[in-house]
Amino acid sequence: MSESQAGAGGALSEAQIAVHWKEETKIPPPPEFVGQANLTDPGVFERFSLDNFPECFKEYAELLSWDTYWHTMLDTSDAPCWKWFVGGRLNASYNCVDRHLEKYKNKAALIYVPEPEDEAHVAITYRELYVRVNELAALLRDFAGLKKGDRVTLHMPMVPELPVTMLACARLGVIHSEVFGGFSGKSCGERIADSGSRVLITIDGYWRSGTKIDHKGNADIAVETAESLDQTVEKVLVWKRYAGEPLSKTPMVEGRDYFVDDILPDYRGRRVDPVPVAAEDPLFLMYTSGTTGRPKGCQHSTGGYMAYVTGTSKYIEDIHPEDVYWCMADIGWITGHSYIVYGPLALAATSVMYEGVPTYPDAGRAWRIAERLDVNIFHTAPTTIRMLRKAGPDEAKKYNYRFKHMTTVGEPIEPLVWNWYHQVVGKSQAVIVDTWWQTETGGFLCSTTPGLHPMKPGSAGPAVPGIHPVIFDEDGNEIPSGSGIAGNICIRNPWPGAFQTIWGDRERFVETYYAKYCKDPKSKDWRDWPYFAGDGAMLSDDGYYRILGRVDDVINVSGHRLGTKELESAALTVDEVAEAAVVPVADDVKGRAPEMYVSLKPGIAADDQVEKRIVTAIEGMIGKIARPKHVYIVPDMPKTRSGKIMRRVLAAISNTLDVGDVTTLANPDVVEDIRVMVQGEGKVETRKGPEDLERFGQET
Ligand code: WTA
Predict the structure, then answer these.
(1) At residue 580, what are phi and psi to the nearest 5 degrees?
(2) DSSP 8-class letter at 160
(3) pTM for this prediction
(4) Do the beta carbons of residue 435 and residue 444 sit within 8 Å?
(5) How far is the CA of 491 from the centre of ligand 1 (A)?
(6) Whose CA is nearest to atom 12 of ligand 1?
(7) Cross-sheet strand order for the sheet of 501-502
(8) Which residue has better confidence, 444 or 21?
(9) For ligand 1, which residues put their CB under 6 angstroms from it?
(10) What is the rounded average pLDDT of the residues 287-302?
């Protein structure tokens, strides 16, 4: 089965899923917002219509400074690997730093808020950022031997040294690949090997939920893992969270590990000319999960990506240089790359970074930060909103801040939670954008344009300028708006922010994202290559899209994508385990959480130890974010006669949905045994929806 077809079709096809969802009333944007918004001209949608495609994106490219202007807007000759702004040369670090010095050198580029509340904030001006990026670029070039086109893996948490490192790489044309700090050393090592990095940049430790995390140990595991996959790491550069005594007790390896703080003084005052790279030269890789166990290194370009994130930061996030913008995502994810670092800094904004947990030490923390820094644009994910609401439903009211604009991203948001965000966090004064997009897409795809469209709780809204979505059924027929039927959301046209390929695996790139609805695999015409996003969606008759969740074997946990196969493979490394199946279960805070079912090898009895070993294996191989909510040790897996595990049945049990007809299974009796194990003795009333859970594990 191909990746693009996984989990779709079968007994209940995508198109047959009618959506159990009531239309919400629309809320207009507040006039004070519209009065100051960057984009209020309704003509934008005409300018960005398909008739004006691709030339419309000139408007975005012109937000950047180019060393050489491009000659070809869009080159489709290597379809579907699109090339934007061909002939153009630019440098991302120049665009985010140097070009602001004339007007904004004394303005804060970054304000860093450490998790311990008694530790002072750190404001880094554009001038200071310039100095730090240059000195580090000199070190990376002259000490670590990095040059244009090399890949370097970063495994860093939320510290200001992370954007400094990204920008220093960008200055040299070095492709950075940042691995989320919460991922295990092993995950990091696999990504080092896949990207072919010779250098790893990490940190001794950091704060998380009041605990000092020793992070350096992960580097040793990462290097060892990479080595086992034939990739040698020559140098490990270790930042220090605090000057002086390192936070980590893990010893440094002689001749391999170096504290950046020890070497950096040698580069004091050094300047490195930004290397102008071709628009289509890669800026970074960002790994994400897919249907198979192996993560995909999404390769993003320099010119197209920068143009797209700068344009969407300006028009959808409504960032002006005067704004104090706080995105509470982690830079280790695409949201942080696009909308903490590259987009906001390209617009000379002040971008706030917070190290820790939003509710640490209490439910008021986020609002104290907003009040103190006078944040006026706030950006976070439904999981965090749900967490903040649960921890302190009225807490925000105690603080004196004023948001003009708020974003929700990464998961579907329930109207109830949306309304709390609007009324309590936003004090009914802020405009909200619900932005739907993906690691692969570089920037927003669907969202209201905040100065132009009313908001609709629970709906991402129409597409952003220049994006033309379509919903297809399994057979490639368009599902019309207002039909109340869900299908697979696709994008008809290329856009500059789209990733270029999967690092080292073009075939998987084409197969996963373009093969499903491609009209002619030989075609060089972009019209024949709709982009398959892997999400179920529905279009209302007002042209607003509602995103329903993944249609593949990916579970969106707190906005983080986890491949079920990755968790299953980790569980199978435990000796006692014969078979493993992971399903998503609805969770009040995280949206979805993984639940695991395992069967043991013959003759092995279930005990707590097995469960513990499974959890440890998952945490060690992936990271704590992948920890299953429950591990059920079952006598046998429900299987088809051909021996396939019926994940659909397990998902139905986990979510108290109707298990459907199981009489054709090889072992129908086990279904009731498992149901009792999970739901208890009495008969439990089943429910309808949510759509992604009803659809999960449909066999083709
Ligand atoms: C989901 C995060 C509903 C979707 C930027 C997508 C959303 C996946 C939304 C990408 C939203 C993202 N409403 N669902 N506003 N935004 N998603 O790659 O399933 O970490 O495919 O990128 O998150 O997750 P990723």
Answers:
(1) -140, 140
(2) T
(3) 0.93
(4) yes
(5) 15
(6) 410
(7) 257-259, 235-239, 199-203, 151-154, 175-178, 282-288, 296-301, 501-502
(8) 444
(9) 288, 333-335, 409-412, 434-439, 460, 534-535, 547, 549-550, 556, 561
(10) 88
